[in-house]
Amino acid sequence: MITVVALLCLACVYCLYWVVNARRMDKMTASLPAPPGLPIIGNATLFIGDTEQMLKNLEDLADRAYQHKGCIKVWLGPKLYVAIGNPEDAQVVLENCLDKDVVYRFLRPWLGHGLFIAPVGLWKVHRKVLLPVFHNKIVEEYLGVIGEQSTVLVERLSEKADKEEFDVLKYITACTLDIVFETAMGERMDVQHTPDTPYLRARHTVMTILNMRLFKVWLQPDCLFNLTPYAKQQKDNIDLTHRFTDEVVKKKRLEYERKKNGADKFIEPTDKLHAVLDLLFGREIEFTDEQLREHIDSITIAGNDTTALVIAYTLVLLGVYQDAQENVYREQESIFGNSMREATREDLQKMNYLERVIKESMRLYTVVPIIARNIDKDTYLPGCGVTIPAGAGAVVGAFAIHRSEAVWGSNAKEFDPDRFLPERSVNRHPAAFMPFSYGSRNCIGRNFGMLIMKSIISSVVRSYKIHAHQIDRLKIEMLLFPINGHLIKVQKR
Ligand code: HEM
């Protein structure tokens, strides 16, 4: 009896604390607009419906925010979120609030404390160690792998040449998986020829469950999720992917130890590729095998689908805008003539027009459409003139900012690669364009991603003429997808 009374008292104290705190937060952000909500669940109904509807809901929110200095607040149950649609406030949040929002906690069983979701204290120390590994000079050594896999892609696409339209994402994803696996782990997977392995199936299953959970509010509390069959399915498949990476880490650890001890007269082949994992041994921090697995899994997950999606959107856009495709092709011709050789660092540096096309593609189809951060201290947003209280979450709407007329002008929704000409970019706010996020917790692989994207698109455009129709409907999962896929037709040049 005493225990029951004590528990009831505790529950009442918690509710009281919550109500007082929620009132304080609501008052601090009183000048922000808010969509009408329901008692207890607040605006959680915004996340009911399919992923196409959810994107529409978010776009409606952005429109309302633009009528009020670019910010709006929503309550998701007991949690206050401020959604940000202007570059000034996005900059403040992304520079000052480095902790990821709790929504990313679903990734924890998979990625542990890997860089992508590491708590901020650990992240600061680990990011410093990982940063030099993604330096231009290092990632440029991976151009051989990128070139080789791009050639395989071009060969694989020949089965679709001069035929009906098809979804190109599947082909691109296999290619980027081969590149990212080999450069991150030093393991050749040959996904382009062997796309159906237990590891790849497990990875796909985990991604599907995570995506579903992210946008189905009733699956979010662990106590409910654990009652569903998805919980066991997720665990089994995560275990399988962990065992795979653990094996690779173990093998690399042995190689490292043998090299360090000079054992067995260890001779490294002169043409050995130094993958990211190889470069993480013997650093200022001695990472444990578990930490290495978490970092490598984070890198392969963060780096693959993002890069593949940008390439696929860009190919569709080139298929729609034939004049832009012609410009890209002419630029390639001026660099390579008729040659189908792999692109070198110097070649890539000359692809200025292609770079503008890729940027414009990332602007219109921002594959990471929202970035959510935890507000760990009261943070003043100068754009909307409000202080977000500690304990709230901030959602930076990169997709909305990239399509905002206030930022990009009245033709914001049109495809115009030349808006990225240096002379047209000088007066733009530094956080107006942030496909790789902004601030010190931005994408560590952005330069590497750019090398991959330019090389692959260069190979495809030199080999094929592309045709496509405008993408009409989009949906939001962890990333941004077209409902009907990335449909293109290719014709041999
Ligand atoms: C076009 C390609 C890419 C895009 C659009 C992209 C986008 C992003 C974005 C927006 C973030 C920040 C997410 C957030 O704060 O919630 C991020 C982080 C990250 N990305 Fe990328 N990315 C790309 C390619 C890559 C590549 C090629 C790699 C590595 C091979 C990579 C590895 C990472 C990692 C490890 C993080 C976490 C960084 C940290 O928290 O310190 N990304 N990426």
From TrEMBL:
It is found in: Endoplasmic reticulum membrane; Microsome membrane. CDD domains: CYP4. Coiled coil: none annotated. It is a peripheral membrane protein. SUPFAM superfamilies: Cytochrome P450. The keyword Metal-binding applies. Pfam families: p450. InterPro entries: Cyt_P450, Cyt_P450_CS, Cyt_P450_E_grp-IV, Cyt_P450_sf, Cytochrome_P450_Monoox. Keywords: Endoplasmic reticulum, Heme, Iron, Membrane, Metal-binding, Microsome, Monooxygenase, Oxidoreductase. It comes from the Eukaryota. Its main location: endoplasmic reticulum. Its cofactor is heme. GO terms for cellular component: endoplasmic reticulum membrane. Heme binds at C443. Signal peptide: none annotated. GO terms for molecular function: heme binding; iron ion binding; monooxygenase activity; oxidoreductase activity, acting on paired donors, with incorporation or reduction of molecular oxygen. PANTHER family: CYTOCHROME P450 4C3-RELATED, CYTOCHROME P450 FAMILY 4. Belongs to the cytochrome P450 family. May be involved in the metabolism of insect hormones and in the breakdown of synthetic insecticides. This is Cytochrome P450.
